Amino acid sequence: MAENITLEIVTPEKAVVSEEAQIVMAPGSLGEFGVLSGHTPFMTSLKLGVVRYVDKANKERFVFVSGGFAEALPKRVTILAESAERRKDIDIERAKAALVRAEERLAKEGDDKIDFTRARAALARALLRIRLAETARL
Ligand code: ATP
């Protein structure tokens, strides 16, 4: 069997994951990529998306990331994310409240006090958090 790799996911606020993984899939800016032990080293930026990995016990795990950077080395993947939570730690009510706030801002078309780019990014984060958390309930 292939060797495991160490996956670290950190944000400016907290360490979210520090664990052995059999495979890591991440949302690179240029598309999703997968890393197994022994991979050629590379670095990439990440977009909003989901990091998926298979842990030592063969369980698939899901982590929300809102963008950042990833560095893959032969035995380690390090993800520096702007924000990140494990699927089980997503607070759906908080994400729904963030969605409503973003929708209210986006509805104020033409209001030059609103930062629409920021509101669209908040909307995308909230929608993804809700979608990811809800898949855990299926
Ligand atoms: P909010 O407006 O609710 O803060 P946001 O999208 O602006 O949402 P971020 O800037 O992405 O929040 O994240 C700030 C911090 O709050 C991060 O540590 C992130 O992990 C955490 N966080 C944000 N939303 C949630 C959520 N719904 N469930 C759990 N943690 C969350």
CATH H-level superfamily of the largest domain: F0F1 ATP synthase delta/epsilon subunit, N-terminal
**Beta-strand content bin:** 35-45%
What is the CATH T-level topology of the largest domain? ATP Synthase, domain 1
Using the coordinates above, name the CATH class of the largest domain.
Answer: Mainly Beta
Q: What's the helical proportion of residues?
A: 25-40%
List ligands, each type once.
Answer: adenosine-5'-triphosphate
Helical segment count:
2
How are the strands ordered across the major sheet? 1-2-4-5-6
Count of beta strands: 7
N- to C-terminal separation? 31 Å
The general outline is elongated
What is the string of helix and strand elements? EEEEEEEHH
Rg computed from alpha carbons, rounded to a whole number of angstroms: 16 Å
Provide the structure class.
Answer: alpha+beta
Mean pLDDT over the full residue set: 95
Low-confidence stretches: none
The CATH architecture category of the largest domain equals Sandwich
The total number of structural domains is: 2
Main sheet: strands, sense, barrel: 5 strands, mixed, barrel
Describe this structure in words.
With 138 residues, the chain is α+β, with helices and mostly antiparallel strands. The chain folds into two domains: 5-87, F0F1 ATP synthase delta/epsilon subunit, N-terminal (ATP Synthase, domain 1, Sandwich); 91-136, ATP synthase delta/epsilon subunit, C-terminal domain (Single alpha-helices involved in coiled-coils or other helix-helix interfaces), CATH 1.20.5.440. The chain has helices spanning 92-107, 116-135, and strands at residues 5-10, 15-28, 31-35, 42-55, 60-73, 76-81, 84-86. It has a five-stranded mixed beta barrel. Helix 1 (92-107) runs antiparallel to helix 2 (116-135). The longest helix is centred in the C-terminal third of the chain and has 20 residues, at 116-135. The mean pLDDT is 95. It binds adenosine-5'-triphosphate. Adenosine-5'-triphosphate (ATP) is lined by residues 11, 13, 66, 83-85, 89-91, 94-95, 98, 122, 125, 129. Adenosine-5'-triphosphate binds next to strand 7, helix 1 and helix 2.
